[in-house]
């Protein structure tokens, strides 16, 4: 029965979608727009809470997840506000400005033009990136399904779904564990739209690369190569922001072309020509990134240190925990649809199969940044989950006498509600936990206002090439807030990160000798030593008694010293 229904739907889909490709009425857009506005409002609540509950003497710094990486981006924004290229200010070694990233260049210029701080620009990125990606997500639901109900369910799954990480939370408390077991299965943001909107808007903005696929599908439908040129220039634009996504674009399009070739037993000339056009136009950011991390010694070391994060795609046993019910339903759809059978399958349905399968392979790309390949995978996953839900589970339920009497619309609504109940809990936990973490009013989300004043003084008096030694909690803020080099700032961008972490601990400890401290200062050309609450917590060193340091700034909580 299921196979008969699937074949029938394939046939009808080909007829309906031929006339209805991206046929969305103005009234229909109200639903995704309203959902997008609601999600943005809900995910703004922790930021509002953090600002209004900040205690006297402290300031919320505008981020609530992955602070080191965001401060890396903010450093680039600062450099790009006056230049086309940026040096790496998150390490003390002198280096030339050779790095470029279009997203942070645009945001740096925008922030300067609008006179906005990093937190303000961050919120602009959140709103614009979220709106663009979710509208594209709804467009893909319209490509996949002719009826509005399925489009809406697809959109909700795409926007709200998360994994089974809530089970790990339950396990933590039931087993009285200090930490959540397998935290990557809970906290990885790539592939989780809601978590990306909450705290990783650059991932959501990067996922807009999926517009390429819409352009290629429409170009194939109309047999107009101009859409390939548009897609190529768009991939070029996106590649200068997130070069990793070139793997996804090229891989998915190649996989789709191979499936079309296998189905039609004929070379897909349009896809071949469009692939060549897109590749020739857009490959340059990839070449630049390769040359930067291959020829420049400092950036070569930075790439090597990606392994320091220890963040990789979970193995096949843990992947269902990370991706959740939508992932399992997508696999079920692929099997029930007999994805290896291609005859009679429409281009659109074939594309979503190719996207899901190729993306599945790319998330295990043998690189230290393989985790980024999850970004955008939620789109075909949501589409296939709805295929499983309404092309297979729904007809199967109708075979049961007790359910057959139920109104079809009621049964479909119950299935949709049940699916959302499966995919929502982890994201609800992640949202609530932001309030708990922010209510601590502590590093790295908050700084003492005196700490900010100390960095303001450095910004006004230090040279951009100067090096500032501090704790990691402060060092990660130094490049973005002062424009100088930090001695210790980031797990990848700070060259020889673990050695410098040890040196910072040694410097501020009470056990180190002046000779040891002087060697650190001289070896790395340190110009200023920062001393505040975060540094006091590292040891008993009293810089006011060091004859080689001259105090240049003093406040209740913070002192800044110049190295004589």
Helix content: 55-70%
Q: Per DSSP, what share of the residues sits in E-state strands of 2 or more residues?
A: under 5%
Derived structural class: mainly alpha
* Uncertain stretches of 5 or more adjacent residues: 1-19
Shape label: globular
By DSSP (H or I, 4+ residues per run), the number of helices equals 29
**Averaging pLDDT over every residue, what do you get?**
93
- Compute the gyration radius: what is it? 26 Å
In total, the number of strands is 7
Main sheet properties: 5 strands, mixed
Characterization of this structure:
- Strands 4-3-5-7-6 form a five-stranded mixed sheet.
- It has 564 residues and is mainly alpha-helical.
- Residues 1-19 have low confidence and may be disordered.
- The protein folds into two domains: 2-46 and 126-437, no CATH class; 446-563, no CATH class.
- The chain has 29 helices and seven strands.
- Strand 6 and strand 7 form a beta hairpin.
- Helix 2 (30-52) runs parallel beside helix 23.
